[in-house]
Amino acid sequence: MKKVLFMFWCALLSIPFMGIKGGAYLFVGICVSYGVYVLLAHLLGKIKKPAKPVNTKLLSAAFIAFAFILPFLFKDYYTDVAILVCIYIILALGVNIVVGFSGLLHLGFAAFYGIGAYSNALLTTHFGLGFWSALPLTLLFTSMAGLLLAFPALRLRGDYLAIVTLGFGEIIRLVLNNWDSVTRGPNGISNIPSPFILGFEISNLVYYYYLVLGFVLIAAFIVKRVYHSRTGRAWLSIREDETAAEAMGINTRKYKFMALTFGAFWAGLAGALFASKMHFVSPESFSFMESVFVVCMIILGGLGSIPGVILGSLILVLLPEVLRDFQLYRMLALGVGLVLMMIFRPQGLIKKM
User: Closest by alpha carbon to 132, among 122, 124, 140?
Assistant: First the structure.
């Protein structure tokens, strides 16, 4: 009965776009497809699991090798999309530290992303610093923002923490939008320079792709090492049961500080890369929906899973591009996909680290 209701609900959502007739056809189509699936599953028996476990190291090596040759296989447009995917992977890794590892529901992470982007933009355009000179200061500012948010958020849990972080995200967006003398308000900041390496400007898409890919590999390596460290275990224990973690002698306040600061650090890096890639930043890029979008990535891929974060970022950045010709249905498809995940695989596509 639940499955039938879900199919009916999907058809109901499509009515504003397809009309009543189209919704009815969609409902019948989903029912027939599900019936065929059940019939085939009954005839063929249960799907057998592979006898040998998947070689994750080999799979990771193949994925990295593919990432390195990607610009030579596809057009510049796809390289441009791949850069965006890489930036979102770094951002999602930061969110995963706070939400996935530590269990702190954060709905204002776009604020750190925005602080990183604007810090880079201001330091490079107003103070004349280069990308590499501005990057340490950018990371310092975003980490400090994470530390400052940790003070009021330390004693909060669940919904209360989500509301506070949501408010924090909106405050930062309003500051960026209204502090005209510094941020230029809704007009944003333009003419942000590209990075230079040994006097060579990284303005070419392919070169910039390799720069961002390098940061992704460094970020994934560091986050994985931290996950397997004592700190990572402490975060996981706080996520599972904060009271029990305190009873076991874990200083939960200290580790929450660390999680928010470390997560903000990666968001600052993603923001700096985004600003130097786009050469322009405006408050619209760091709205509440951006925070929700990144949280959806880690929920889809698997909370606390680094491969899951990468997969979730890939799907949610690529899917809107694939569905660009069906713009009216893009958000519908994303919404239905997330609901399907919550029903059939709430732990995400990749559960384990």
Answer: 124
